[in-house]
Amino acid sequence: MISISLCMITKNEEKSIENCLKSVHDIVDELIIVDTGSNDNTIEIIKKYSNNIYNFNWINDFSAARNYSFSLATKDYILWLDADDVLLEEDRVKLIELKNNLCDATDYVGMMYDYSFDDNGNCTYSFRRNRLVKNFRGFYWDCFMHERLNVWGNHEDYDIHITHTRKHDNNKRNIENFRKKMLENYYLNPRETYYYGGELFAGGYYDDAIRVLENFLEMDYDDNYDKVNALIKLADCYSSKGDYEKAIKYCTNTFNYEIPRAEVCYKLGYCFQKLQKYYEAIFWFKETLHSNCPNENFMKVDNSWINYLPYQQLCCCYYEVGDLKNSFRYNELAASEIPNDYYVIKNKEMFKSLGFQVD
Description:
Helix content is 47%, strand content 17%. The strands form 2 sheets. Strands 1, 2, 3, 4, 5, 6, 7, 10 and 11 form a 9-stranded mixed sheet that branches. A two-stranded antiparallel sheet has the order 8-9. The protein is of the alpha/beta class and 359 residues long. The protein has 3 domains: 4-164, Spore Coat Polysaccharide Biosynthesis Protein SpsA, Chain A; 169-257, Serine Threonine Protein Phosphatase 5, Tetratricopeptide repeat; 259-359, Serine Threonine Protein Phosphatase 5, Tetratricopeptide repeat. The chain starts with a strand and ends in a 6-residue tail after the last helix. Helix 6 (190-202) runs parallel beside helix 8 (224-240). It is globular and about 75 Å long. Strand 6 (108-117) and strand 7 form a beta hairpin. Pfam families: ANAPC3 (PF12895), Glycos_transf_2 (PF00535). InterPro entries: Glyco_trans_2-like, Nucleotide-diphossugar_trans, TPR-like_helical_dom_sf, TPR_rpt. This is Glycosyltransferase involved in cell wall biosynthesis. It comes from Clostridium punense.
């Protein structure tokens, strides 16, 4: 059996920290909590579970705080979590099994991160992260924000899910932190540049995002997944600005790195539809229905957009070219996905008025 140190960084986490610690404290062998300046009840709550609480002077660098927490661990392996993460009961059982059976030759373990959920509690976005790493191997964090854990050696992936429990809206804060860092003459590495561009895009600063993301694509960087995402964000920037020709260019540039993703095919269909090139749009919306994201470490669980939205847009495109039979057929398929959707219902009323047999 291996021993595990849980390493966490915290600041003002009184609303979530107890649920996190409750879900894991009796499985790990050591709790290492690095606090970066809490002024609420976070520390008092942590003391119910551990006295290994260390203060860290915040320097606008998440990696520095995480590296400090790792340096304090004394057990065989390090598990890292955020205060708003929990292990559900089935995942607690799986973690105990892993602890009892993990091969000592394993250097790091990947687990799924269930990050976002719909109003019914269904996971809508899940991806894999390296969560358990062997101690004393020199693994380290870099990038001051959207930090990355650098690992090497033998790895295994386990079907253990870490559940994220809080919605974040840190876009404004994150942009401010990036800008503050650059005012300190800090050089953004390629990954940080990519994430800065992403924050600018999310904040609606499309021209700035275009500049930063195009700069990122010129950098020496070997992560094709991030390159594809940068191209997709650039396409979205230009689409938001109404420049659909450039949006199409950036979408098709993703094909240099991987086979077409469903979301790229859908965006191409949307752009051609906006340009009133309906047959081209029909082609790409149909491709959306047959495409998947090829990276198994990033699993989009919510497939409603992969099915319902292409069906609905195919309904519209076939209507525009005068093919009412196919237009009706695709509205029926959209109804099979989301029967009470406003547009589905309005289209049913229209088709009924045109003499179609509507349920």
